[in-house]
Amino acid sequence: MVHDDRRPVAVEHPARALGGIAVTASIDRDVPMARPAQATWTAAMPNRSRTRSRRNILGLAAAAWALPNLAAMAADEGAADAGHVSALAYGADPQGLQDSTKALNAALADTMLNGRPSNAGRVLRIPKGVYVVSGTLKIGSGHRLVFEPGVRIDATRLPSEETSLFVAAGQSDIELAGNGAELIGSAAHARHGVEGSQTGILIYGSSNVVVRDFRLRGFATDGLCVGGESSGNRPSRNVRIENCEVRECRRNALSIVGCDGCVVVGGLFAASAGAPHGPWAGIDVEPNENQQAIGVKLVNVRTQDNAGPGLLFVPGASSVRKDARFDVEVVGGESHGDGSLDDYPAVRFACGGLMANPVAGQVALRKFQVVSPKSSGVGFTNWDADKAPLALLEDVSVLDPDGTGNARSNAARTGFVIYCDHRQAVQALGNIRLVRCRAEDRRKDARMVRGGILAVDPGKSVRKVAVVDFSVKNALSTLKYDFSTLASEVPGGLADASVEYTKQAAVDMDTDASLHEMGGRSLRATRSGLHFLLPQAANCRGLAMIVSAADAVQGTTIATEGGDHIRPARGAEGRQLILAPGRLVTLKSDGGSAWVEQ
After folding, report:
1. What is the dihedral of CA 300, 304, 309, 310, to 10 degrees?
2. Which of 97, 342, 372, 467 has the fewest Cβ atoms surrounding its Cβ within 10 A?
3. Residue 343: which pLDDT band, with cuts at 50, 70 and 90?
4. CA 93 from chain center: how many Å?
5. Are 209 and 174 in contact, with CB atoms under 8 Å apart?
6. Averaged pLDDT of the chain
7. For the chain, which residues make up each domain, given as ranges?
8. SUPFAM superfamilies of this UniProt entry (predicted)?
9. DSSP code of 536?
10. From the centroid of its chain, how far is CA 537?
11. Using an 8 Å Cβ cutoff, are 18 and 352 in contact?
């Protein structure tokens, strides 16, 4: 049995808490957002009560700012031409001596399509300089903002943890070109224990949005957030985020909460920490109740040094809907130094508790590399075998787990952990497929105990899991397996679970052994008279054991436990099977009391 001395951590979450911990927060309902009216910009401002759920950044009440048409001012300054207008024409101060909030909002109001002001549709340029901002900058439909190289927006004076910097709410056809612009939030002044909803760039219920080449740092809640109304009726659609670097935000670098199409290309999402309830992720894909995250694609993203997971996938709240989907694809990329010593692997698949209804779809993680996670590389929490979407990992590598050398359990020193422990709300963890994944310890003094493990506590099970062509290098365990099937020691521990190889070289065995951890591994007796003990068939339905005797090796015995028996392809059933020299057998559990030769 895996011993893990991790202690539960209270985690607030809408309608759930990660890790099977009791719910500690309520959900604030938002007010449906009105559509933009002529000459107005409809903005979404957070609606928070004193009891905060982790996701109420998107519980938004409708509010409107009626902004004057200031085209005349632009003309007086001579800053507008046929295609561009400068923010300086509206009084923005690039020296950072005066607050530029009103001036920038005036420039934005005069260049959005809402209300058709005189400069509608022109590109708004933000010239090089430092701009002090103390309130929300409101993005409208049709906005095209170009930040010249060398722009810094100093938003350290935002008045509260609830005030975001750039907000596009209910808008469309937006392009923000940062050219390396720095956006700096007010996390340094955030009150301890207050999560807030402050975001560097908030995209809420908006469509056809491109955000590229920004450097965001130090926002009280999230750096970037993509979401929509809690009703699920108006998600953000067709959002593209390119080459953004987000660091040192208190909750997440990027939160994807409600969307139908969100592509993130490149970028670095790093050093999330400080929010009172986590999850401190690099990228967190996590819909609220009634919402969905579909069409999410992360391409060559990098995460680094987050206090929580680099990548976090949480579909659980979507299960309130009977038709919910959760579709995420990750292609390429790397996590480096993410996670925590306690509850957070570098890549985490999680639900906060029991799921109400099945959620269709899948999370496909392909050609992704996890380097030096603080504990384990990939882990699963409450990933319901019957209700969670498929978790598909292909060509995923974990290198040097327990990257700090301080992990507190063997599970935390393992590459891939599929462990249904007693703290999880679900009875069965699963619906997981790993293909050509690998774990390796490259350090002179190795710390990795296992490459991967299927494990359970009594009363729990792992179901519908396939591990195909897994490989491990330099694990400390002396047992002859690549991916441990330790769960087969526990009654009902494995069901419809397999470790399999399209091609494998047999591992030589010269001592007696229990085969509980060696499911799917081809074992070859190299000495006569060896004795191998099978786990009970009822503990591991669908698991195969492969044993052979080398040429000239006699008396290799495969024995059963309890009242189990072996059903050979030829001959009578019995409690044990003795192999002739050179013979190979594959025995598969029928989930009852028999091991059946294949």
Report:
1. -10
2. 97
3. confident
4. 40
5. yes
6. 88
7. 33-52+67-228
8. Pectin lyase-like
9. P
10. 35
11. yes
Kindly state the helix (H) or strand (E) to which residue 75 belongs, with its residue range: helix 71-77
pLDDT of residue 290: 87
Each residue's pLDDT tens digit, 495-546 = 999 999 999 989 999 999 999 999 999 999 999 999 999 999 999 999 999 9
Edge-to-edge strand list for the sheet holding 544-549? 507-509, 522-525, 544-549, 584-589, 594-597, 565-567
The kind and range of the H/E element at 77 are helix 71-77
Percentage of the residues of the chain whose pLDDT score is greater than 90: 80
Helix (H, G, I), strand (E, B) or coil at 90: helix
Q: What are phi and psi of 439, to 5 degrees?
A: -135, 140
The beta-strand segments (E) located in 191-242 are 199-204, 207-217, 222-227, 236-242
Helix, strand, or coil (residue 318): helix
* Continuous segment of H or E residues that includes residue 270: strand 268-270
3-state secondary structure (DSSP) of residue 46? strand
- Type of residue numbered 497: A
The residue type at 223: G
In which element (H, E) is residue 109 found?
helix 101-111
Q: Which residue has the tokens 């923005």?
A: 92
DSSP 537: G
Integer Cα distance of 2 and 411 in angstroms = 7
Q: What single DSSP character describes residue 511?
A: S
DSSP class of residue 534?
A: P
Cβ 594 vs Cβ 566: under 8 Å: yes
Tell me what the mean pLDDT of segment 354-381 comes to: 98
For 128, phi then psi, to 5°, come to: -55, 140
CA dist 553 → 38, 477, 531, 556, 578 (Å): 88, 26, 12, 7, 11
Instruction: Say which residue the tokens 């999680």 belong to.
Output: 350
Residue tagged 């952990």 (tokens): 417
Structure tokens at 195: 């999560």
Tokens of 257: 């909460």
CA dist., res. 43 & res. 141, Å (int): 12
Q: Decide the pairing of beta strands 390-394 and 507-509.
A: unpaired
Q: From CA 372, how far away is CA 401, in angstroms rounded?
A: 5
The CATH classification number of 33-52+67-228 equals 2.160.20.10
DSSP codes of every residue in 111-155: HSSTT--TTTTPEEEE-SEEEE--S-EEE-TT-EEEEPTTEEEE-
Average pLDDT over residues 89-113: 98
Contact present, 590 and 596 (Cβ < 8 Å): yes
Q: Model confidence over 565-589: pLDDT tens digits?
A: 999 998 899 999 999 999 999 999 9
For the stretch 186-237, pLDDT in tens is 999 888 888 889 999 999 999 999 999 999 999 999 999 999 987 778 999 9
pLDDT band at 82 (very low <50, low <70, confident <90, very high): low
DSSP state of 275: -
Return d(Cα 157, Cα 155) in angstroms, integer.
5
User: Higher model confidence: residue 77 or residue 240?
Assistant: 240
Which H, E and C letters describe 405-427, residue by residue?
Answer: CCCCCCHHHEEEEEEECCCCCCC
